[in-house]
Write a structure and sequence with these properties.
The structure is a single chain. By secondary structure, the protein is α/β, with parallel strands linked by helices. The chain folds into 2 domains: about 60 residues; about 210 residues, Pyruvate Kinase, Chain: A, domain 1. It is built from 5 helices and 5 strands. The protein has a 5-stranded mixed beta sheet with strand order 3-2-1-4-5, sandwiched between helices. β2, α3 and β3 form a beta-alpha-beta unit. α1 packs antiparallel against α5 and α4 crosses α5.
């Protein structure tokens, strides 16, 4: 059985841990509000541009531009977005688990990975995977320039036919309590059928389709990548805030249980001491 001193030390240790989790929750809450605001502002433009790109891919002759060309998918690339840090529940584990499932589903193909976030980079680097891009310490100062950097890489890999399909794996933000793991094809652009959308119209290109695509496709890639980075970051902050809230509550429960145990043991000691005093008094009376 633990002594009073040991229980007191455990209570002090849990209280220090609770202070840390409470501070991490407050920091995550501030970052979460900013990230949530950013993703809410970015979604309308991103969704509209992705929708337009899908319409164009359906309407146009895909042989007009190399980034629209469809090849036999023998070389697959996955852009896997995790966090740079832990303490965010199952956020990283869900992405890694889904990525490994997708890799197994494409076991008959050559699979390459582009890793964004230290947690995913650490995990896959220790295993036998082909890694062609790695970005760590990525979310400390997230800017659109970083999306440009990734866009340059994936566009070059596709144009040089080093990859035939490129997919994005990320956590889509739903709420602080919910993040959905998504797998979306980035290249080649997936056409959107007219019957699957509202407000469909045929496009007329000026001065010509090729010049238009030279402008539209890079912008589409930039915005699509920037959008998933914001989704992932907002999801990470929501997951961390929730995880730290649960950790703080669990620490409170542990402190309560330890305090009850401490008080019970202390009461037992006091009762034993009182009994010893009473017994000694009775013994002294008996000897007189």
């Amino acid at each position: 059985m633990a002594t009073l001193r040991e229980i007191k030390q455990r209570i002090a240790g849990v209280e220090k841990t609770q202070q840390i989790t409470r501070a991490l929750k407050m920091v995550a809450a501030v970052k979460f509000r900013k990230a949530q605001q950013s993703i809410v502002q970015a979604r309308p433009y991103a969704y509209r541009l992705i929708n337009i790109m899908g319409h164009v891919a359906y309407d146009i002759d895909r042989s007009l531009h190399p980034l629209l060309s469809v090849r036999e998918p023998q070389k697959i690339g996955f852009v896997i977005i995790t966090a740079d840090q832990g303490l965010c529940g199952s956020f990283n584990a869900n992405i890694i688990r889904r990525a490994e499932a997708e890799i197994r589903n494409n076991a008959d193909k050559q699979v390459s990975l582009i890793l964004i976030g230290r947690k995913g980079a650490d995990y896959f680097s220790r295993r036998n995977y082909e890694i062609i891009g790695k970005y760590t310490r990525f979310f400390k100062d997230l800017t659109f320039r970083q999306a440009d950097e990734i866009e340059d890489l994936v566009r070059e890999l596709y144009l040089e036919q080093k990859l035939d399909r490129i997919y994005l794996l990320y956590n889509e933000f739903k709420s602080a309590l919910r993040q959905d793991v998504m797998v979306e094809q980035l290249l080649p652009v997936t056409p959107i059928l007219p019957e699957r959308c509202t407000g469909y119209v045929e496009f007329a290109f000026e001065p010509d389709a090729i010049k238009f695509l030279d402008i539209l496709i890079p912008r589409y890639l930039n915005v699509a990548i920037w959008h998933v980075l914001l989704e992932s970051y907002a999801s990470e902050m929501g997951a961390r805030m929730t995880a730290m809230e649960y950790a703080t509550e669990n620490a409170e429960n542990i402190i309560h249980n330890l305090t009850m145990e401490y008080n019970k043991l202390r009461q037992e000691k006091i009762t034993a001491e009182i009994l010893e005093i009473v017994s000694s008094g009775e013994a002294m009376k008996a000897t007189r």
